[in-house]
């Protein structure tokens, strides 16, 4: 029995590169995602006009997507009404419960916003999604 175990151990260790490859593939595919942002990066009061609209202009409607051709329309003059009227943002609810934030944080639009931009949008929604 001892001889069989010794032979199996030699075979396993003889293929150490296979073991490392399997472990590397398994561990390398692990990811960690968090919604926690440094509160120092975001001001106490986030303004829809001064802070959120510039994000939409730079990331969402400048490429010709959310400029009226694809909902929600995020152009300066109708973005607020479009977000609330379309149900993308519901004032008074946590950001995580709003579809605008969900698509930006782990959803289909995540690649189009930076962590800081997501933090601004989260803060704006959590503050009540004011039209300020």
Lay out the secondary structure.
Blueprint: H1 2-14, H2 16-28, H3 48-59, H4 79-85, H5 99-104, H6 115-126
Helix pairs in contact: 3-6
Tell me the β content.
Answer: under 5%
Please provide the count of β strands. Answer: 0
Helix content: 40-55%
First CA to last CA: what distance? 78 Å
Shape: elongated
Mean pLDDT: 82
Instruction: Count up the domains.
Output: 2
Q: Describe the biggest sheet?
A: none
Structural class: mainly alpha
Low-confidence stretches: 16-33
Number of distinct helices: 6
The H-and-E topology, N to C, reads as HHHHHH
Query: What is the rounded Rg?
Result: 24 Å
Description:
The chain is mostly helical and 132 residues long. It folds into 2 domains: 31 residues; 88 residues, no CATH class. It contains 6 helices and no strands. The radius of gyration is 24 Å and the shape is elongated.
